[in-house]
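Service request form, structural biology core

Requester: graduate student, group of Dr. S.
Request type: structure prediction, single chain
Budget code: on file
Notes: please return the result as structure tokens.

Sequence provided:
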Amino acid sequence: MKKKIYFASDLHLGAPNAQDSFKRELLFVEWLETIKHDADQIFLIGDMFDFWFEYKTVVPRGFIRFLGKLAELSDSGIVIHFFVGNHDLWLEDYLVEQINLKIYRKPTEFTFQGKNFLIGHGDGLGPGDRGYKIIKKVFVSKIAQFLFRWTHPNVSIGFANYLSLRNKLISGIDDFKFRGLENEWLVSYCHHKLKDKHYDYMIFGHRHLPMEVKLNERSTYINTGDWINHFTYAWLEKGEIHLKKYKKENNSSFIYD
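Core staff response, request fulfilled:
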């Protein structure tokens, strides 16, 4: 019986170039193959693509092995949840129609195995990030999407890929170094949310740092890290979350007290 629920984020397919992206794609597909025998559900928590945009009849070139594996898993009955991140926020209905993904655009509550979860990508949450919060409002506007859609893909997608790699404001993050708990905006966001409601686990991506932070005696913040430097994922089994590196010795502690 399939009992595990898996979580991963920040694959950033397409970055920094096709060759490096392809290597990571193969590794991630390999990981998906290893979990398909016991996965009940899979959560992909944002920025799986470094850039994504859907024209009416055109989607970005590439990522065939990744998309094919998702289609295979979905067809086998595994439920796949896909959270839109700041790099793939223009994802619309193509993957819903072709793969039957469940798409989310904001933190969402779930209950699994007797535990309460709040799950999201994590961009623009908590204090700070003011510049990104402003520019995100521009990007999600129908006007911006309309204007972009009327630009030829050879121009628009190439320019967008360039900005995605070079512009930290668009990325919504200044660095990938641990800032200390008092300066981790997602930790602050989680503490704020716990004032109104209890969650056993609050799971996010975006920071590219695998973390397991005890927020109080009953609540834990999990960051799934990334598949660029850390190659980490989490899974839920028997009501407990585990955080691990793929194909590496899991001898590092991700717990910050």
